[in-house]
Structures are given as structure tokens and as C-alpha cells.
Amino acid sequence: MAEQMRAIEITEAGGPEVLQLCTRPVPQPGHGQVVIRVAYAGVNRPDALQRAGSYAPPPGASDLPGLEASGEVVAVGEGVSWPLVGDAVCALLPGGGYAEYVATPAAHCLPVPNGLGLKEAACLPETYFTVWTNVFERGGLQAGERFLVHGGSSGIGTTAIQLAHQFGARVFATAGTAEKCAACVDLGAERAIDYKQEDFVEVLRAEGGANLILDMVGGDYLPRNVRALDDDGRLVQIAFLQGPKVALNFAQVMMRRLTITGSTLRPQSDLAKARIADALRQKVWPLLASGVIAPVMDSEYPLEDAAGAHTRMESSGHIGKIVLKIE
């Protein structure tokens, strides 16, 4: 294993141009950790937030961006029984994925599903951990329920549509173009709503209201989501692309027995993330291996063009996942 590696660092808070190629020492595995030689790294909205200076890494995490990757295990620390050196894995990372090597807890690794390559596998951890914990554990989605996911053509959205459909929910999604709406329907959405042309509140109310909404928009979507919910409905908030503050009439929440909750993944404990990994291995990885669900791929960029990948993501023109090719 080399002593130095190429990586992308954030030189200062700002736009995509602050992402610059650098050389860093190769990380060493601590107790319960593995080091992965990275083949591909997923590009996600939290990476852009960190780049902009609004999402600091948790204590002890790498300052390099990158929350998911795939590759080959090249070193293991004490206390690790799986994965072993030479195993191909994908992994949820505390940070550091935009690099040739990264260290992460072994318990946050998952095998590359049969039938998928390393490129596709790099797109799985951040989105599948997020969707599973927020839609099925925190949100409690059940078969037959009406589920609305905003940003249906995003990495989170395409994952949520497929999983909710496979587990028997009636899926509705919002997206901003006819092409994106068509992609959502192809993935299993019963109805895709072009939010520039239609009011998702009216659509959902006509269906009886949503039992569960997954939202990453925030801002004025919050009171609209409340109106779109059926009585006893649940709203799970995972991001705030339009801001975290808005006026809300909580009398509706009380009278209609609504639940508003949310979470972020990165600050959760290693144990909590390990439990999510175990649930995914048991309940979702077989679906990936059988081919009934699959990551939706948008585009690939070389490591040195991480700025281009961020520009693509922030343009909101993509459908599905963006990856960096490291090797």
C-alpha cells in the first residue's frame, strides 16, 4: 500500500472551483476499521453543503468530502472479522471518499451485490442507508399506503420510489420536467407530478392524502406538505434545499394527529449505522442481487474533475447518481 495518495480537498468555503486535487497520507485502519482502495466515489448533496461551509464533518472524521465509495479492502484493523483484505465492498463513510484510499468502520461495509459492478455499488450506501432509515424505520411505510417523495429523479428519489414500490406502497413523486416525471413512472411511481405545472397538494388530496411524505426541499414546502397529508400522516424531513425556517400552523398538526420528524445520517453513531447496514443486507441487498431494483446512473467524472461533478449535481439536470472514477 502506498504512503501517499491523490485526493480532492476543499481549499475554502465556496463554489465547485474550491475543490482542488492534492496529495495526502494514506489513512491507516484503527480498531474495527478497514482501509479501502477506492474505485468509485458517490457524489451527494451533503458533499456540496460541506464544500459551501454549511455542513462540517463530525469530530474525528476526515476533512475530505465523500460519504460513500466502492473498492477493494487493502488493510484491516484489530477486531475486524469481515471484510477481509481483497474483498470487494461498498461502504458508508464518515468522510474522505474523494481519494484513492479511505478508512471506515468495517461494520459500515456491505458486499457488492451480485450482478452489479463497482461503479454501481458506489452509488448505494448513502442513498440506501438514508432511504431505509427514514422511509421504513422512522417513517414506518406500510404496504398499501400512499407515499409521496419529493425530488423523485434524484439519487434519494429514484431509490425511494423503487423500494417503496417493491414493498407494496402506492408511490407518488414530484419532479421538474416531463423527462424526469417519465423516469419516476418507469421506476414504479403510480403518478409523477411536474411541480412546475401542477400542485402536488391538490393531486394528493384528490387521492385521499399522503400517509407518508419524504421531503428534502423544506421552505414553503413544509406547510404544503402538511396540507397534502391524510389524517394521522407522517412527514419525514431529510434536507432543506429551500431553507429550514417557515411559519407553520401547528393546530393542523394537532387536530389531524400528524407526525413531523426527520434525521441526518452523518452525525449518527457508528452503532446506529451498523444496525442500518445489517437491515439493508437482510432486506434490500437480495432485491439488488435479483435485479428487481438497481441504482439509476446519471454520469461519471474523473477524480480531478470533482468540480464538474458538483456543477452537474447543483444544476439539478441529473437523473439518478453521479460518481467520481478514482482509479
Automatic annotation (TrEMBL):
Gene3D superfamilies: Medium-chain alcohol dehydrogenases, catalytic domain (3.90.180.10), NAD(P)-binding Rossmann-like Domain (3.40.50.720). SMART domains: PKS_ER (SM00829). Residues 14-324 form the Enoyl reductase (ER) domain. CDD domains: p53_inducible_oxidoreductase (cd05276). Keywords: NADP, Oxidoreductase. Transmembrane segments: none annotated. It comes from the Bacteria. InterPro entries: ADH-like_C (IPR013149), ADH-like_N (IPR013154), ER (IPR020843), GroES-like_sf (IPR011032), NAD(P)-bd_dom_sf (IPR036291), Quinone_OxRdtase_PIG3 (IPR014189). This is NAD(P)H-quinone oxidoreductase. It comes from Thalassococcus lentus.
